[in-house]
Write a structure and sequence with these properties.
mainly beta, eight-stranded antiparallel sheet, seven-stranded antiparallel sheet, 19 strands
């Protein structure tokens, strides 16, 4: 019998969206855009965890955001980001981009490279609306060190355990784990690449990397912000 604190969502069960005819294949872990499931709207402050697959030359034209924390992680290929402030940045695997939209930003994201692009974009609700937008890019994110998103009461760790290595989960009220490469075992359940686990009261829980090792993104959320 599985641990009732752990709810696994398989990558194959994500809702398929995007514009396939335009080279955009989107896979939503939560309700997003025109896809609405009243039983799957958020996990704590986490509102979206979208896996985006863009063919060369495709992308998202300039569009607005406000009152949201946007965190992007490239899985394969290169992501070119442009914003209304005139900033252009190219991101590759191992780079993290964080935008606090604050009172409002406009930006565009596209695959300007020759190879297919896959990236995760995660949206978090800030505790306070408005404020000045902020922009951060980290090259080669340090492993196992928390990256703080203080406005959302959240911390993100990138972990790459070797084959068979154990990975202690933070003892937080809510933990969201995404396998981005390889596999991990959570109790009796094996999670493969693109699978995610929503964990409540993670104290004492560990994950074990599979035979090829793993790359795992682990979100740790403070209690009291967002529901359910």
């Amino acid at each position: 019998m599985g641990d009732e604190r752990v709810r696994v969502q398989r990558g194959a069960d994500r809702h398929r969206g995007g514009e396939p005819g335009e080279g955009i294949d989107s896979r939503y872990a939560f309700s997003f855009g025109g896809h609405y499931d009243p039983d799957n709207v958020r996990f704590g402050p986490l509102l979206a965890c979208n896996e985006e697959r863009l063919a060369p030359g495709s992308g998202f034209g300039e569009h607005p955001h406000r009152d949201v924390e946007l965190v992007s992680w490239v899985l394969a290929g290169t992501l070119t980001h442009q914003d209304a402030a005139g900033r252009t940045v190219t991101l590759g695997p191992g780079d993290l981009q964080h935008q606090s939209a604050g009172a409002g930003i406009r930006h565009a994201e596209r695959n300007a490279g020759p190879a297919p692009l896959r990236f995760l974009q995660m949206w978090l609700e800030p505790g306070t609306a408005g404020g000045e937008p902020r922009y951060t890019v980290l090259r080669s994110v340090p492993l196992d060190e928390p990256y703080e998103v203080p406005g959302a009461g959240a911390r993100l760790r990138v972990c790459r355990p070797a084959a068979g290595a154990g990975l202690a989960l933070p003892p937080a009220p809510r933990v969201y784990l995404v396998v981005t490469a390889g596999s991990v075992r959570l109790g009796d359940t094996v999670c493969e690449a693109s699978d995610a686990a929503r964990i409540t009261d993670a104290a004492g829980l560990t994950a074990e990397a599979g035979p090829a090792g793993a790359e795992v993104l682990i979100w740790e959320f403070d209690g009291g912000h967002g529901a359910p």
